Amino acid sequence: MDQDDPGEAMAELQERHLGGLGILEVAAGTGLFAYTFWAGFLMPGFRRVPLKLQVPYVPSSRQQVENVLSLLRDRSGKMVDLGSGDGRIVLAAYRQGLYPVVGYELNPWLLRLSRFYAWRAGCARKVSYQKEDLWKVNLADCKNITVFLAPSVLPLLETKLLAELPNEARVVSGRFPLPNWEPIATVGEGLDKVWAYDIGLIRQNMEMRETTFLQGTPV
Ligand SMILES: C[S@@+](CC[C@H](N)C(=O)[O-])C[C@H]1O[C@@H](n2cnc3c(N)ncnc32)[C@H](O)[C@@H]1O
């Protein structure tokens, strides 16, 4: 075979059977491609976040956004979306009258997109999108929190929210409920369903359960 002739080289490659090493090479190539796509496009900015806490981007549906906002109607005080994606919930919350509104997001592409949408809507100076790890921001001054995260991270999120939020805070979770809390309201069905939790009530319920448990414990 003429090594310099690409046509011949290709023909030889097509005739060759894929041996064990070939399969390994294809697998490694595919893996590398998948990783590059994951790290470069889906999860850039997540290098410092432990793998088990990495939640990929899936946007809320239009109905889901409406449901979230219906559970924040007539509320006031600071609102944050933890993992704000393309910023749709933050923008809608501002339009509903919440202020200040902040989205925390690590993916720089999504942050750019959020800022573009806010600019296009004439709200560039009204809403804020910050490149922050949601696990590291302090939520002590937040009265309204929205989340749409994977079920696997929600138990840890409950712990963080309980440790930091004031009693007046309300948490609205989209698509997946917080696993150990009793909601005060739910809206929607299926993928659009959302759950609301009032932190003061969650704490009260926990205290009551602890007291009942202690009273039932023989001394
Ligand atoms: C399921 S999407 C929800 C996006 C948006 N909240 C919505 O409802 O359309 C979850 C988002 O959280 C972001 N995210 C995941 N982990 C994060 C972290 N540790 N800090 C900041 N953002 C995070 C992801 O990049 C993704 O955009």
UniProtKB/TrEMBL annotation:
Family annotation (InterPro entries): FAM173A/B (IPR026170), SAM-dependent_MTases_sf (IPR029063)
GO molecular function: protein-lysine N-methyltransferase activity
Signal peptide residue numbers: none
SUPFAM superfamilies assigned to the protein according to its UniProt record, in alphabetical order: S-adenosyl-L-methionine-dependent methyltransferases
Protein keywords: Membrane, Methyltransferase, S-adenosyl-L-methionine, Transferase, Transmembrane, Transmembrane helix
Membrane spanning stretches: 20-43
A GO biological process held by the record: methylation
GO CC terms, sorted: mitochondrion
PANTHER family according to UniProt: ADENINE NUCLEOTIDE TRANSLOCASE LYSINE N-METHYLTRANSFERASE, METHYLTRANSFERASE DOMAIN-CONTAINING PROTEIN
The family this protein is said to belong to: Belongs to the ANT/ATPSC lysine N-methyltransferase family.
Name this polypeptide is given: Protein FAM173A
